Amino acid sequence: MKSWIRAASLAASILLPGAALAEAQSEMLFQHKHWEVEIVGFDDGTFACLAEVDAQTDSFTLWLYADNSVKLQFYSTSWDFGEGDTADLEIQIGNRSPWNLNDADLYKNSILFNLPDSDQSVRLLNEIAEGSRLYLRTSAGEPVMDYSLQGSSASMGALAECGDALRQADGNPFD
Asked: What is the third-level CATH fold of 3-169?
């Protein structure tokens, strides 16, 4: 077993539900080029794995939860959204066709979008893993932000393995 998978299992066992956490705790499991993969334990006893491209004040993050749901998060210190706001956006990986993110949640410094459980979402994640640059745009195609995807393939593999470790650590043998 790879050492970072053992670390994910250990972190999950240390941060088991029932332990009252004052705030979210995380442990880095993998780092490659512009990416970091972490396991995060939240104060409500839940866990998630994340893969993040961080550029100090701006970041693009993929969140993977034990139930296999995936959330995209775009973060910038220059944004200040209200609660309950939504927007239609698009992302484009390299020169490929753009993807629409309809009704993305805008909250404080983040844009959040839950990927549906579908073949299209798997295709999008594969494009991210194979891509070199992600462009975030308004629904009209105007540029908002762009992110390097250098190292995304290895990091997406590490994210998937972290998610597998999370599902195994939840005590449900039927997952």
From this structure: Immunoglobulin-like (2.60.40)
CB neighbourhood size of 146 (10 A) = 16
What residues does 95 pair with on adjacent strands? none
**Predicted confidence (pLDDT) per residue in 135-159, tens digit:** 999 999 999 999 999 999 999 999 9
For the chain, the domains span 3-169
Ranges of residues in the chain whose predicted pLDDT is under 70: 1-23, 55, 170-175
Contact yes or no for 114/64 (Cβ under 8 A): no
Cα 10 to chain center, whole Å?
21
| CB contact set of 169 (below 8 Å; sequence gap of 6+) | 8, 9, 12, 13, 47
Q: Which of 73, 67, 82 is nearest to 51 (CA)?
A: 73
Q: What is the DSSP string of 132-152?
A: SEEEEEETT--EEEEEE-TTH
Quick one: how far is CA 110 from the chain centroid?
12
Within 10 A of 160 (CB to CB), how many other CB atoms are there?
16
Helices (H) and strands (E) in the chain, counts: 3, 10
Compute the chain's Rg from CA coordinates: 16
pTM (predicted TM-score): 0.83
The two structure tokens encoding residue 10 = 């250990």
Q: Name the burial class of residue 44, with classes exposed (0-12), middle (13-18) and buried (19+) by CB atoms within 10 angstroms of its CB.
A: exposed
